[in-house]
Amino acid sequence: MFSNVSPYFPAILALGAVGILAAVALPVQLRRFRDLSRRNAALESRIASMSRENSRQIQIFTRISSIISSSFQRDQLLSQIILVLSDYWPGCRIYILLLKSDGSLERVERTVTDESTNWSVPDRVARPVLPLLAEPYSGGVSDAWLPLLGLPSAEGYLFSLPFVSEERFRGAMTVVSSEPLESRSRVFLGDIVSFIASADRNVLAIREKDQLSDEFGKSVDPRVRDHLLHGEKAGETLDVSVLFFDIRDFTGLAERQGPDETVSFLNAVFSACELTIREENGFINKFTGDGFMAVFGAPIPDADHARRAIRAALRIQDRIKRGIPGTGAISFSFGIGIESGPALAGKIGSAERREYTVIGNTVNTASRIEGLCKILGTRVLVSGNTVRRAGDTVAVYRDLGKFLLKGKDTPTAVLEARSLIAPGTVPAEDPFLAAFMKALGAYVSGDFFAALEAFGALCESYPADGACRWYRTRAAERCGNSPAVGAEADAGARWSGYEIMGLK
């Protein structure tokens, strides 16, 4: 039956079967290939999208890092971060909510003008939402969030993550969107919040350091503060001018005004004085209750310290005459004494507490000269040494003679600084000063009767001048008890042309 069949028939059947199988399998393989191609294309698209997203996130992190490294102002830093994140989520509203010490919240957000602004959320509004802020939140915008975020209605989706620094809840970052955020965006939001918490901790540390420096600066002049923080020398001898300021009859003034008014009065007076002293390159070294000691020429040497000290004293005198805001109708008298010379400057005190100060004969002499203001009825007294250093073009002076101050071996020339001389001008001759100098010359030479007559005439013409009255009294005493009077009589000394002061 099959004798006439070709020997190639089995092969033909096999090829036919293969062809049939190929015809059936090829569409399946093509479909698989097309599915694989689509999956590969989708995967490549996803990878490309992820790459672009990663690139964007890296750029955002880079920009935020740059902001953090260049800004130590907490508010500005957070506002700038919000602006950067607004570029990443252009259709979202972004808030940073900061918990304040009084229980209220500070809301930092981006406005429609593309600027960031700060709003203070009262504690009565913030209190109900604080439990929500302290925990991660993802969901719809509930009514509780509306007053906090200033939203008109509960529409959209809200995502909030708290941030913690120094183991304390500091606030939260909140994003309001019309659509749910993708998981990658939520992860990215968490990374940003961690970044902000770290930055906030650093900013707070810097702020605390600045506050400490600021408080230190209120107790110590900034130049002295910097010297204490960075200076290597424990002590050194500097050429300085020392100024003592004292308010007269302070006890009676305090009793009349009461404690609150007295403290306000002192703060107003000392603030005005310190401003002037700083402008003249000096600093108040210490307050003495109703006065202070100021130093010029330390801790940074200043060759012009004598001139600056005299200028500061006369500017303070003029400021007080014109009236200091905050002192009300309180009128008061004061005295200023200035001496120039070498002084030991350094950090002096106990092992637990030290202060930068100057000590030595120059300081003691300045204090003694200030005390003469009470006796002579003057405001600003300067040593002859200081006047020589400053020159005679700074102020108009009145020579008040020489005084052997307590604790001194040689007499000190003392002059009254009366007023500043305007640069480039020559003050007019003053008949009063000429008459006073003539009377003082008679007194110093020992012609006490002539001095008594001259000072008596001056007292009639200038009854308010304390120095004229004092010298008239001393001349009268010497006329009746010449040549030894007062402390000189006790010492058995003869008149030497200067007064011996037994008091401080």
Characteristics of this structure?
Alpha-Beta Plaits; 15 strands; elongated; 504 residues; Beta-Lactamase; 16 helices; 3 domains; alpha+beta; single chain
Write the layout of secondary structure elements.
Blueprint (H helix, E strand, L loop, with lengths): L8 H62 L3 H15 L4 E7 L5 E6 L5 E6 L1 H4 L3 H4 L3 E4 L5 H4 L7 E9 L2 E10 L5 H37 L2 H9 L4 E13 L2 H8 L1 H21 L2 E6 L3 E6 L8 H18 L11 E16 L4 E6 L1 H16 L3 E4 H7 L4 E10 L7 E9 L10 H15 L2 H14 L4 H16 L5 H5 L7 E2 L4
Parallel strand pairs: 10-12, 13-15
Antiparallel strand pairs: 1-2, 1-6, 2-3, 4-5, 5-6, 7-9, 7-10, 8-9, 10-11, 12-14, 13-14
Helix pairs in contact: 1-2, 8-9, 9-10, 10-12, 13-14, 14-15
